[in-house]
Amino acid sequence: MPRGDKDAYTDKQKRKAEHIEEGYEKRGVSHEEAERRAWATVNKDDGGGKKSGSGRGKDTGHPAAHKGGSKGGEASASRPAAARSASAKKAAETRRKRAS
Question: Exposed site from 5, 10, 35, 65, fewest CB < 10 Å?
Fold first, then answer.
């Protein structure tokens, strides 16, 4: 099997890669780079291609899709409450000024 051949991947993994690729292209990433990143994400999530057959696969769990909220919240949670509050007040004031 030549390198880059996607025969070992399930239909679900192929759909997943296509969806991820579309998301990258929407954000302005070139087609080739978007495709490369999409397959890298599928490999990271699922551990590479899966052959069909009873009991051959594992549940994907979609780990990459679940990282977003927890990673973003860590930095904010480590700041004191007063600093978070001041930042929120400043943001609200900026939004109020720009709206008028």
Answer: 5
8-state DSSP, 49: -
Predicted structure pTM score: 0.57
pLDDT tens digits for range 29-72: 999 999 999 999 988 888 777 766 666 666 666 676 776 666 66
What are residue 61's phi and psi, to 5 degrees?
75, -15
Which distant-in-sequence residues (6+ apart) come within 8 Å of 35 by Cβ? 17, 21
User: How many other β-carbons are positioned within 10 Å of the β-carbon of residue 15?
Assistant: 12
Query: Burial, 83: exposed, middle or buried (Cβ in 10 Å; 0-12, 13-18, 19+)?
Result: exposed
